[in-house]
C-alpha cells in the first residue's frame, strides 16, 4: 500500500508540475501575442508619422526653390497632403487663398472633412481642407486621427508663413524696380560712391554730364 500511495503522490506532483508549466507557457504566449500586437501598432504609428513628416518636408522643399510661383507651391501642397492621411486612397485636398482654389484632381466636398484656416499677418486669408469620400472608421471611432488634425494645423501654419514670405519678396522686387526706374530716369545726375569717394554707380544723366560711359565712370574718384 505504501508503495502504491507513493506512486500516486509522484503522479500527482508530476501532474501539478505539468499544469504549472502549461500555465507558464500560456502566460508566455499571451505576453508574446500582446508584444506582437504592440509592435504592430507601434509600427503602424511610426509609418503614419513618417508620412506626416514627408508631407511637411515636401512642402518645405517646394517652397525653397528659387523663383517658384506661389500658385505652384499651393498646388504642390494640395497634391501631397492626401498622401499623409490614414486612408490616402480615399482622401482629397483643397487649398483656398482669397477665393482662388488649388485642389487635387479627385477633389470633391463631402460631409467627412477637416479644415484649418491659413493665417497671413494675423488675418484668415484662406483655408486648407481634407475630405474623405467615405467613412472608413469603425463604429464609434473618429474618422480623423488626432495626429491628422495636428498635421493639417502644421500645414496651414507653414503655408501662412510661405505666403507671407513670398508676398514680402514680391513687394521687395517691386520696390527695387521702382527705385531703378527713378534712378535711371531722374532729370538730375545722381552718383553713388563709397566713403572713400570711389564711384560705384551713376545714372544715365550722370554719364551724359561728364562724358563717360557707366563702365568708365565706375571706379573713378569722385
Protein architecture, described:
The chain has 222 residues and is α+β, with helices and mostly antiparallel strands. Helices cover 56% and strands 16% of the residues. The chain contains five helices and six strands; from the N terminus they run ααββββαββαα. It has helices spanning 2-64, 70-80, 146-185, 204-210, 214-217; strands at 91-97, 100-103, 113-120, 123-132, 191-193, 199-202. The strands form two sheets. It has a four-stranded antiparallel β-sheet with strand order 2-1-4-3, with helices on one face. Helix 1 (2-64) packs antiparallel against helix 2 and helix 1 runs parallel beside helix 3 (146-185). The protein is elongated and about 125 Å long. The termini are far apart. The model has no long low-confidence stretch (mean pLDDT 85).
Helicity, as a percent range:
55-70%
Summarize the main sheet.
4 strands, antiparallel
Distance between the termini: 130 Å
Range of strand content: 15-25%
Stretches where pLDDT falls below 50 for ≥5 residues? Answer: none
SS class: alpha+beta
Strand order of the largest sheet: 2-1-4-3
Series of secondary-structure elements, N-terminal to C-terminal: HHEEEEHEEHH
Shape: elongated
According to DSSP, the number of beta strands is: 6
H/I helix tally:
5
Average pLDDT taken over every residue: 85
Radius of gyration: 35 Å
Amino acid at each position: 500500500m505504501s508503495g502504491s500511495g507513493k506512486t500516486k503522490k509522484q503522479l500527482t506532483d508530476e501532474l501539478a508540475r505539468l499544469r504549472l508549466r502549461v500555465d507558464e507557457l500560456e502566460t508566455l504566449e499571451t505576453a508574446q501575442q500582446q508584444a506582437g500586437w504592440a509592435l504592430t501598432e507601434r509600427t503602424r504609428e511610426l509609418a503614419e508619422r513618417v508620412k506626416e513628416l514627408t508631407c511637411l518636408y515636401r512642402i518645405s522643399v517646394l517652397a525653397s526653390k528659387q523663383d517658384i510661383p506661389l500658385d505652384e507651391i499651393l498646388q504642390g501642397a494640395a497634391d501631397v497632403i492626401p498622401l499623409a492621411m490614414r486612408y490616402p486612397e480615399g482622401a482629397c485636398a483643397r487649398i483656398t487663398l482669397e477665393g482662388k482654389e488649388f485642389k487635387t484632381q479627385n477633389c470633391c466636398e463631402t460631409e467627412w472633412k477637416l479644415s484649418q484656416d491659413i493665417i497671413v499677418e494675423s488675418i484668415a486669408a484662406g483655408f486648407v481642407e481634407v475630405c474623405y469620400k467615405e467613412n472608413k472608421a469603425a463604429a464609434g471611432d473618429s474618422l480623423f486621427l488626432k495626429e491628422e488634425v495636428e498635421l493639417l494645423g502644421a500645414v496651414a501654419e507653414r503655408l501662412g508663413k510661405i505666403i507671407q514670405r513670398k508676398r514680402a519678396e514680391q513687394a521687395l522686387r517691386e520696390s527695387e524696380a521702382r527705385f531703378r526706374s527713378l534712378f535711371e530716369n531722374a532729370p538730375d545726375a545722381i552718383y553713388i560712391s563709397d566713403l572713400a569717394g570711389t564711384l560705384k554707380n551713376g545714372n544715365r544723366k550722370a554719364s551724359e554730364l561728364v562724358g563717360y560711359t557707366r563702365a568708365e565712370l565706375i571706379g573713378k574718384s569722385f
